[in-house]
Amino acid sequence: MTRAEENYIKTIFHLEGEDTHLISTNAIAEEMDTKPSSVTDMAKKLADKELIHYVKYQGLSLTEKGRRTALAIIRKHRLWEVFLVDKLDFSWDEVHEVAEQLEHIKSEKLIDKIDELLDFPKYDPHGDPIPTKDGKFQERDKILLSELPISGKGVCVGVKDTSPSFLKFLDKNHIALGHTIYVLDREAFDESMKIEIDDRQFHISNQIATNLYIKQLN
Amino acid sequence: MTRAEENYIKTIFHLEGEDTHLISTNAIAEEMDTKPSSVTDMAKKLADKELIHYVKYQGLSLTEKGRRTALAIIRKHRLWEVFLVDKLDFSWDEVHEVAEQLEHIKSEKLIDKIDELLDFPKYDPHGDPIPTKDGKFQERDKILLSELPISGKGVCVGVKDTSPSFLKFLDKNHIALGHTIYVLDREAFDESMKIEIDDRQFHISNQIATNLYIKQLN
DNA sequence: AATTAAATTTAGACAAATCTAAAAATATGT
DNA sequence: ACATATTTTTAGATTTGTCTAAATTTAATT
Fold first, then answer.
1. Closest alpha carbon within chain A to B96
2. Within the 2-31 window of chain B, which residues sit less than 8 Å (CB to CB) from chain A?
3. What's the pLDDT score for residue A20?
């Protein structure tokens, strides 16, 4: 597998999400910052390798083989992210770029040993689940902070937006995974919320609340 | 810099060795298992980037900029080798292949943090020196075991041949870096030697003796 | 249902890195 | 020194992954 092929497979996996629908070449082109015609070319190659189902003009989706391939790449990406944060003191807004490179290193032994060194972590620094060696992964039972009712309570378990700017904002306000959040109030007008974390009270916009994943506590 | 460019620069550095002489396209082609015409093409590109001096039909050599580039790549390669052995329990005959990939990861912070994690090692698992961040490196004061006189003594500090087959041979006979070797006898006919390591006596061929580096003790 | 708009594919081109085969330059041997 | 052998370069082709522009298919609209 070439690096380009791996990047396409990974992108298709992310665009598929939960439900099984066909992905358009346009959507992939947009996501990967490339042209639809390039996606068409690659689609033919990936279909030849039986990594995707591809019907001209209709769209494409991963085969079982493609899905396994995607999960192997994502496993590597997320394990490297944990390594960078836990062992090399990278902050969670710096890891993506480097992990994008490291995920393409070809050595089964290497990634298994990294897994072992990290004591088999289940989640990456952004709260995303790490697939096991055999491609299984348990998505956490989580909701968006914006879905928590007033006087609801939950633990912050992940971020939806993983852009450095959002992550740095959270750092600045000492919002990190594992902290408990209480919803004190919500403004109907703009959906902004008043919350409490570690005895500190905050006012956060709806844009923040729709990008924080919470494990509801009661 | 592309991966191919980096591999050429690295190979040229290794072929130059100590003295400053021009490297032939043929020599590079042989070393890299490619064709001389491909080397010529790349030579033009590297000369354009001022990484090498290149005179048609005469040969090529690294510029100061090229040398710095080579040392940066070699630094990464050797640090990753130490990481694999010290932190992930790879054996010294498995690390080269993986380090060949890891050396191309582009992140200054990453390699500096790996350096720190390893406590700034000076030598890689095969005894080769690791260049510092600013491209300095101290070659050890070493000789080949074959150059040690009878009843001479020294510490094994490196290997010349780093092929898995040679390294596995050494493992099998419990010859490792850091052990002290005494030369008990030498056979004039085939240059084979009788040596002692850790109270065990060995008979080794000249081919072995010319691939083990020794720091002479007296 | 016909026309227009949007999405997708094809055709042809390009850059990087490689190759083969032929041409040019350098080295060797008597 | 001249002929031959070797080395090196050029020219043209190939593969991978990309692009633009044109053609085709599908979707939307009146």
1. A107
2. none
3. 84
